[in-house]
Amino acid sequence: MRWFQKDQPPDVWEFVSDQPLGDIGAAQKIREICASAASIAETMTAGANGKAPSGKAPNSKAANNKAVDGERYQAAVKRALELAKQISDDAMRDVSVSQIISLSVKAGHMKTARVLLRAIRSDRTQAELMSVHPALIDQEAAS
Question: Per-residue pLDDT averaged across 48-71, rounded?
Answer without folding.
Answer: 64
